[in-house]
Amino acid sequence: MFTFLLICTLTSLLPLGHASLPLVINTWPFKNATAAAWSALQSGGSVLDAVERGCARCEMEQCDGSVGYGGSPDESGETTLDALIMNGDTMEVGAVADLRRIKNAIGVARAVMEHTEHTLLVGESASVFAENMGFIAEDLTTNKSVNIFSEWLKGSCQPNYRKNVSPDPSKSCGPYRPKATWKQSKRARHANIHAHDTIGMIALDRDGHAAAGTSTNGLTHKVPGRVGDSPIVGAGAYVDSLAGGAAATGDGDVMMRFLPSYLAVELMRAGVDPSAACKSAISRIKRHYSEFFGAIICANTTGHYGAACNKVPGLTKFHFMVANSETNTPVLKSVDCF
């Protein structure tokens, strides 16, 4: 009787709902992405189908300007995409980074997983692979991204992500050269927390299959060639059908150094509640970068889920979406940052 009461008490303390499968959970209030993934599961699609369709919806809708085409122009004004998809049954992964000309980055990532022996393809070679696989080459710039780039040039290319360098004295920006005495102010990540909102998604079905994925256009004004955490296994996302899944969003240059998604999944494998696992992964980063911007979502194999975020100016509460058999529709959830 004591054991039964203890289990009931612990369950009642779970802050973000009871266990329920199937489940779709994703970062940010990207409701249409959640709905697309949930619809895929309800219509008999696999968890991989759900993740791909959910992330693809965000790519098509240019969620928050930070996913898909027409957002986050780099220092040359080009929009490039990163994406990852992972199969929690087989531990197969497909990912692309610095992808050009192709709008459906998550689709290309799945093609890498299903049609090559590789895990990650990057840059122009990834784009050529995508075109060879039948993906349509299109211009990823829009009037909005061109305007963002133009305004940045007018502002002497500030803010940017360079440090300990200075531009040619005859120019307001670039080419840059090392200059030990030159110091940059705070990094651009402090200027706009919405400059890099990755969609990270986890899907689980009733039979215990799990998948996870990410998609983003990276940081606005990033150095060309920059790759963040989103397409890196264990950083942007990680999933194991025997333990659960996790996905991260935020300052990828910092977060990828700690593999927070892998850490959270391993904690859940050891029996840690998803909320606590997410919080531990964030805490690990905070010990070194107390002002980093970032959040993580977690879900275990029973359908329990949670989230955590680092509290910084402009981010005191993190919003994410959930759909499961209890709600049968996307529901907005939130967690207080710490």
From TrEMBL:
Keywords: Autocatalytic cleavage, Hydrolase, Protease, Signal. Residues 1-19 form the signal peptide. GO terms for biological process: proteolysis. Residues 163-186 are annotated as: Disordered. GO terms for molecular function: N4-(beta-N-acetylglucosaminyl)-L-asparaginase activity; peptidase activity. Substrate binds at R226, V227, G228, D229, T249, G250, D251, G252. The keyword Hydrolase applies. It catalyses: N(4)-(beta-N-acetyl-D-glucosaminyl)-L-asparagine + H2O = N-acetyl-beta-D-glucosaminylamine + L-aspartate + H(+). GO terms for cellular component: lysosome. Pfam families: Asparaginase_2 (PF01112). It comes from the Eukaryota. InterPro entries: Ntn_hydrolases_N (IPR029055), Peptidase_T2 (IPR000246). The record marks D197, T198 as: Cleavage. Its EC number is 3.5.1.26. PANTHER family: L-ASPARAGINASE (PTHR10188), N(4)-(BETA-N-ACETYLGLUCOSAMINYL)-L-ASPARAGINASE (PTHR10188:SF6). Belongs to the Ntn-hydrolase family. Cleaves the GlcNAc-Asn bond which joins oligosaccharides to the peptide of asparagine-linked glycoproteins. This is N(4)-(Beta-N-acetylglucosaminyl)-L-asparaginase. It comes from Oreochromis aureus (Israeli tilapia).
